[in-house]
Specification:
- The chain is α/β, with parallel strands linked by helices.
- It has 3 domains: 4-101 and 201-263, Adenylosuccinate Synthetase, Chain A, domain 1 (3-Layer(aba) Sandwich), CATH 3.40.440; 105-198, Adenylosuccinate Synthetase, subunit A, domain 2 (Orthogonal Bundle), CATH 1.10.300.10; 268-424, Adenylosuccinate Synthetase, subunit A, domain 3 (Adenylosuccinate Synthetase, Chain A, domain 3, Alpha-Beta Complex).
- 30% of the residues lie in helices and 21% in strands.
- Strands 9-7-5-2-10-1-11-15-19-20 form a 10-stranded mixed sheet, with helices on both faces. Strands 14, 16, 17 and 18 form a 4-stranded mixed sheet that branches. Strands 3-4 form a two-stranded antiparallel sheet.
- A hairpin with a 2-residue loop joins strand 3 and strand 4 (48-52).
- Helix 5 crosses helix 6.
- Bound molecules: inosinic acid.
Length: 425
């Protein structure tokens, strides 16, 4: 059975939720391995829209077992809110359906305060974070002062760790950032008050995955954000704080790297980005507005308007290489309808040279000029088409050209938000 890793090949918001939801039907276990509630997976089924920020999208399938791996940063308060709101929609979430790794780090109120304080202290160089405390929580993990889910079982440890963390952070809050200090006793009490609701979910994720594997289960790894937001390989410093590339599915869950057999890169048929950072193919004209409007390009987590532009095959070529993408799912192709021509960026012009991969120096992406190829556009509604051959010639040509430019096969084509509006090749 293939174990599939689903990752975003651009800057996030590629439509991963829909593909995860679709492939969850054939999966036994669905695992999130990085990021936190900065993610927002929008799933449409019939007329019902569900946005999940933390809980794996597989939860919508009653037979699937969902796991939150050690690589995730989990806000326990947001987690319980999401459980409650899913419950109100008739989706039962309990420890028989969902497990959380003992080793998952917790986002606490001071991480959110730090996220906001840092962003407001930056002037021209804001990152545009989602403000959910993601970065500061990963910082604490690396600094070896983080609070992990397993700590909830030892109240004295929680109290000691929070007291130590705040001894340092309160100095920064009051003396550097001009904000109020947090009371360690209150932070600990609030956390320990909800601990009994979280503890029943704690599991040894790596052992559970090993056992599932032995039984021939199919495991789906649900990535969040996108390749070019990766902390190592993305457009640093305008990135998130985790590794978003496929290899992190192994580290962030505890499965062996040789068990990741299919890497499905989700590619939106154009490019979007939320937050700050260079975006070579960004459009500031009526075409950009059309993509934003027709594609309903608003951030699922923050509601911010997404910046829109042409498809950038230089970034995608890098994504194929960084993730080892075996298959592509091309999403939102229907949004391009009505354009008389479609541009694709095939290379960059940088300091007088034509380059096929992004330049490596910090912020150099802001200095490149995209080299475009123009393809014929198409008109009309393609959202009801179910086979590749029935798509307009111009759409077929666009898909084939992308495959050539990035050297990976397009296996799925999404032509609308519904599960069944997907062509499988
Ligand atoms: P953070 O992840 O909240 O620290 O934000 C860092 C950068 O990643 C910002 O530019 C965010 O807009 C971006 N980002 C974080 N999560 C997502 C996502 O799920 N989709 C798209 N962009 C994201």
């Amino acid at each position: 059975m293939p174990n599939t890793v689903i990752i975003g090949a651009q800057w996030g918001d590629e439509g991963k939720g829909k593909l995860v939801d679709m492939l969850s039907e054939q999966s036994d276990v669905i695992v999130r391995f990085q990021g936190g509630n900065n993610a927002g997976h929008t799933i449409l089924c019939g007329d019902k829209q569900t946005i999940l920020h933390l809980i794996p999208s597989g939860i919508l399938h009653p037979k699937a077992r969902c796991l939150i791996g050690n690589g995730v940063v989990l806000d326990p308060f947001v987690f319980l809110e999401e459980v409650a709101s899913l419950g109100e929609s008739g989706i039962r979430v309990d420890p028989s359906r969902l497990g959380i790794s003992y080793k998952t780090h917790l986002i606490l109120p001071y991480h959110k305060v730090m996220d906001a304080a840092r962003e407001s202290a930056r002037t021209k160089d804001k990152i545009g974070t989602t403000g959910r405390g993601i970065g500061p929580c990963y910082e604490d993990k690396m600094a070896r002062v983080g609070i992990r889910a397993c700590d909830l079982m030892t109240p004295s440890l929680v109290h000691a760790k929070i007291t130590r963390a705040l001894a340092e952070k309160n100095v920064l809050f009051t003396h550097l950032y001009g904000c109020k200090p947090l009371d360690p006793a209150k932070v600990s009490e609030d956390l320990l008050a909800i601990a009994p609701k979280i503890i029943p979910y704690l599991v040894n994720v790596e052992v559970e995955l090993k056992e599932a594997e032995k039984k021939g289960a199919r495991i789906l790894f649900e990535g969040a954000q996108g390749t070019h937001l990766d902390i190592d390989h993305g457009t640093y410093p305008f990135v998130t704080s985790s590794n978003t590339v496929a290899a992190n599915a192994a580290i962030g869950s505890g499965i062996g790297a040789n068990k990741l057999t299919q890497i499905l890169g989700i590619v939106k048929a154009y490019t979007t980005r939320v937050g700050e950072g260079a975006f070579p193919t960004e459009l500031f004209d009526a075409t950009g507005e059309l993509l934003q409007r027709q594609g309903h390009e608003f951030g699922a987590t923050t509601g911010r308007k997404r910046r829109c532009g042409w498809l950038d095959c230089v970034l995608l070529r890098a994504s194929v290489c960084l993730n080892g993408i075996t298959d592509i799912a091309l999403t939102k192709l229907d949004v391009l309808s009505g354009l008389s021509t479609i541009k694709v960026c095939t290379a960059y012009s940088y300091k007088g040279e034509i380059i096929p991969y992004p330049p490596q120096q910090e912020n150099a992406l802001a200095e490149v000029e995209p080299v475009y190829e123009e393809l014929p556009g198409f008109d009309g509604d393609i959202s009801g088409i179910h086979t590749f051959d029935a798509l307009p010639q111009a759409v077929q040509a666009y898909v084939r050209r992308i495959e050539e430019l990035v050297a990976a096969p397009v296996r799925y084509i999404s032509v609308g938000p519904e599960r069944n509006q997907t062509i499988v090749r």
